[in-house]
Amino acid sequence: MIIVVGGSGYIGRRLCAHFSRKGKLLAGTYYHSPITRMLHFDLENPDLTHLGVNLEQARYAIICSAITQIDACKADEEKSYKINVKGIKRLVEQLFQWKTVPVFLSSDHVFDGKRGNYDEQDQRNPITVYGSHKKIIEDFLVESGEPFLIARLSKVFGLTPKDGTILTTWVEQLQNGEIIHCAEDQILSPTYVEDIVHALDLSLQNSLRGCYNIASPEKFSRFRLATMLKSYLGVKSGKIIPCSIRDFNFLDLRSLNTSLNPGKFIKATGFRFSEMEACMDKLKSVSQKA
Fold first, then answer.
1. Quick check: 168 and 226 in contact, CB under 8 A?
2. Are 73 and 128 in contact (CB under 8 A)?
3. Full-prediction pTM beyond 0.70?
4. Is residue 222 part of a domain?
């Protein structure tokens, strides 16, 4: 059975729905807003026993919960550290006590972005507060001597209109005739959210341990991806303006190329990530029906 900590988040909701359909969900948790059939869990003061479930049944706990906004972590370093580092460490320690394997969702932001196409053996050198938090937890798991799984993710997107992710937001903006400024110099590995869900399920089925990059092998700059989307969907309105990621007034730094190499994961599982053109086909179909 599986616990999804942070089941109310974008990825967490989909994980809860997936494992619930398979009859493998022990509990999904929320923090801010109550959600039907989910249990409240406070990562600032984590106590698994408060969930009121049989923790002896929990084989895995997928840790989705965190302050994930890069600038929010920078704006309040004390609070974000308390949740992203102290809280998760305490949670992980409890999971180890219950013999539950933690599955930690990490990030491409553990890298500085100078090179890109990072694999699991590459040196990590985060340049953001958020990335440093992820690295600390990765190190904590590695040094624990206990079984764990680290799943490093890149930019996750969905195909449901108004879901707030990168492609659907761009489509909405373009259809509204807006001008979008997109960086030519930031390279990402955009990955379909349903691929993340199925890849994580496959990871658990195969009892993977250690660290794996779970991200599409395709790599795009924001500008290239946006122009491809506009052309592919045949959107005539709106305009895409190339720029640098440095042109935006962010509070914290932004890495230029954090693209990930998922070769280790693909070799271990045989998983095939959705190609971007296939995803845009689905989005086009959905947009035409809307």
1. no
2. yes
3. yes
4. yes
